[in-house]
What does this fold into?
Amino acid sequence: FMKENQEAIRKEVGAGKPASAVGALGGQKWKAMTAAQKKPYEDKVAELKAEYLKALEEWKNTGGDDEDQDQDEDGDEEEQ
It folds into this structure.
């Protein structure tokens, strides 16, 4: 919801206002929406979450990045 409406909400809040004001107004608008109005956004979030969880599970099943965690592309230790 915010990704699609942030620019319009930012204009409504006005220039020079902190980002928290944009988030607060966005939250108010979200709370004022009906369940039917929220449904497309909630469906998209559920779809993206399922894709993420599937990719995460595949990554874990392939061993993740445990053994190369502190190495760069050349196999050298990275400075931290």
About this structure: Residues 50 and 56 are 10 Å apart (CA to CA). The chain has a mean pLDDT of 87. The two ends are 37 Å apart (CA to CA). The first helix runs from residue 2 to 13.
